[in-house]
Specification:
Elements (H helix, E strand, L loop, with lengths): L24 E6 L5 E4 L14 E3 L3 E7 L2 E7 L4 E2 L19 H12 L11 H17 L5 H17 L14 E5 L1
Antiparallel strand pairs: 1-4, 2-3, 2-7, 3-6, 4-5
InterPro entries: Phage_CGC-2007_Cje0229
Organism: Iodidimonas gelatinilytica
Pfam family, one: DUF1353
């Protein structure tokens, strides 16, 4: 069903962050393929999500080991994304798509998920975890731009991470999809 104004939703999510102290993030695994689509007519939203006219079409799952214990992370269907969030000046080094894309989508989710959990606020340790998950995902994908992207998010990501971001998700049934991006 396509409607003129999509419903923005807040999905119920499992806490994707570690529950206590941790030392090491390793062994990133892709569990499902990433399916995205671009809305045929774009998505109306405020300036906070400008350019985020791509939608995660199906739940996207990965696994990561935290101090040797496996944690599954599910990016919910309906999450809005601008693909890899690369500023214009850096696109000669790393574009919005490439081997880093899948890890970037998980990273985007980890940068907004704190807003969907009760009694959660921006936390520097959760942000570091998100950045290390991105790094491990790019390592698993053998991305040649891994180090520049990782350094950039570590240097400049806090301002983006701590700022509440709305809307974050839409009801995927409310958007007429354009061509699928797989």
């Amino acid at each position: 069903m396509s409607v003129d104004t999509p419903r923005y939703v807040t999905p119920i999510i499992a806490d994707p962050y570690p529950s206590g102290p941790w030392q090491e993030i390793t062994n990133f695994r892709y569990l499902t393929p990433l399916h995205l689509y671009r809305a045929r007519r774009g998505i109306p939203f405020g300036t906070a999500m400008r350019g985020a006219d791509y939608v995660v079409a199906q739940p996207y799952r990965i696994a990561i080991d935290i101090d040797g214990i496996t944690k599954n992370i599910t990016v919910p269907a309906g999450m809005l994304t601008d693909l890899a969030s690369v500023p214009n000046f850096a696109r000669a080094i790393a574009g919005r798509v490439g081997r880093h894309l899948e890890a970037s989508i998980v990273h985007d989710f980890l940068y907004i998920a704190w807003q969907d959990l009760p009694n959660r606020s921006p936390d520097k340790r959760d942000r570091k975890y998100a950045d290390l998950v991105l790094d491990q995902g790019m390592k698993a994908a053998q991305s040649r731009v891994r180090m520049p992207i990782f350094r950039a998010v570590r240097l400049f990501g806090w301002g983006v991470y701590k700022k509440p971001d709305t809307p974050r998700y839409i009801d995927p049934d409310d958007i007429e999809p354009g061509p699928a991006i797989v």
